[in-house]
Design brief:
Length: 116
Amino acid sequence: QLQLVESGGGLVQPGGSLRLSCAASGFTLDDYAIGWFRQAPGKEREGVSCISSSGDSSNYADSVKGRFTISRDNAKNTAYLQMNSLKPEDTAVYYCNAYTDMLGYWGQGTQVTVSS
């Protein structure tokens, strides 16, 4: 079965850090770019960051630039999102997406809550 599974979410205080993981099973991530998205209650899903299949290029939304870092370890078939200096407005369900020009897979999401 082809699937992506996110993990690493949770409750963290403002200023704290979390590392999200996105593990693929049933297929290899080598040929897929990876995107991290988030959706807060009552809001549309928005793109947070993406990384190329080789890992040599990445992009970030302005709202997370300088605080979040996307990475991937193709040997482990896993991508990551390191989130530092978290703010309450980062609270959302975070999803990873593995995609090519032809295909795309979504994970089920992991909840991140930033609150004191």
